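Hi support team,

I submitted a single chain yesterday and got back a structure, but I'm not sure I'm reading the token output correctly. Could someone confirm the output below corresponds to the sequence I sent? I've pasted both exactly as they appear in my results page.

Thanks,
R.
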Amino acid sequence: MSPIDLFRRTGGPARAASHTLRPATEAGHSFTQQGRAQDRDDSVSVVIPFFNSADTIERALCSVAAQTVAVDEVIIVDDDSKKEQRKSLATAAGRDHPMPVRVVRLEPNQGPAAARNAGWDAARSTWIAFLDSDDSWHPRRLELQLGALSAETLMISSQSLVLGADEHPPGSTALIEPPIRRLDKRYHLFHNPHTTSSVLVRRDVPARFTDGRFYAEDYEAWIRIAALGEVLTLQVPLAYFHKDPYGTRGLSSRIWRMILGEHRTFVLLRQDGVISVPQFLIAELIMAARIGRRLALRALRP
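Hi R., thanks for writing in. Yes, this is the structure output for that exact sequence:
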């Protein structure tokens, strides 16, 4: 059995019973594949940033190949990986995939934001689907997201599930008309509901990730896009994170860097006039409250 066939047979949300979801028409949207405009261009370019991740890139590519809606191209952006990693990437990209796969190389290493931007700029399709090289998708991810779009949609995401680094998604789960939620800019100021590997965004949206940032750079981009127009999310997990659990110290350090990244996000958005002074202050106060709560919980530990 090929890796693609295996992924098709095992694709589906993990650690959950079957999802049989009711129709939703929130924000004036009805979910129907047949309801898509016949003349709408739903071409999709997949952008995968790659940095020394040869062990997982094949799984990511197999999950793209297993989609029920064919993609037009896959762009893998090699962010100056080691020589042996580049060779492994060339082998994986050169396999007999059902979609074109091309590799763009950055030199020197510039970080995930720059890598995603390079793929975004190189893409030729109407829609950009992001996928990290160590993540994977449910086989119906693109089908369900494209079916939920309206003429005004700039971006759509879904929920995600965290799996072990070597854990396969279990048997397929029924995904019938998942609820659609519209999220405005104000909502994004207090929540980050999007994981990058679940995001589908219009290529021509005048927004990008801020180069050189390593934490909350995606959150900043989502707020900028939400300030421009319609952002939707599907209330069903269609992306999978394959991660090893962090140790207590490693997780704590990562969380603090993410909090500082959020602060930097709000500063940049205020400087560019994307958010008002009251919105900036409220967002900072809520972030400070979260920090205070975390410090209090730490002080109470034995």
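A quick pointer for reading it: The first helix runs from residue 3 to 10. Let us know if anything else looks off.

Best,
Support desk
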